[in-house]
Amino acid sequence: MQRSQAVGCIVLEPHSLFLEDPNIGGIMLGANATLSAADYQMVFADAGGSRVAT
Q: pLDDT truncated to tens, each residue of the chain (54 aa)?
């Protein structure tokens, strides 16, 4: 079995709140740099849609 060398990052916040956070860019860049140094890649999934729970 071959490993994918990928680490997932799933965000459940609404897209607009996630992008407005002034810290998230630095966090994502730091995580990506650390993973890249270890020969891993970061896979990002935005699961924070605008759906309203009923």
A: 888 999 998 888 887 777 788 898 899 999 999 999 999 999 988 887 665 554
Grouping H, G, I as helix, E, B as strand and the rest as coil, residue 3 is coil
Under DSSP, is residue 18 helix (H, G, I), strand (E, B) or coil?
A: helix
9 backbone dihedrals φ, ψ, rounded to 5°: -125, 110
Residue 39 in contact with residue 4, Cβ under 8 Å?
A: no
Tokens of 35: 């993973």
pTM for the model stands at 0.69
Q: What is the DSSP letter of 50?
A: S
Q: In angstroms, rounded to a whole number, what is the distance separating the alpha carbons of residues 5 and 20?
A: 30
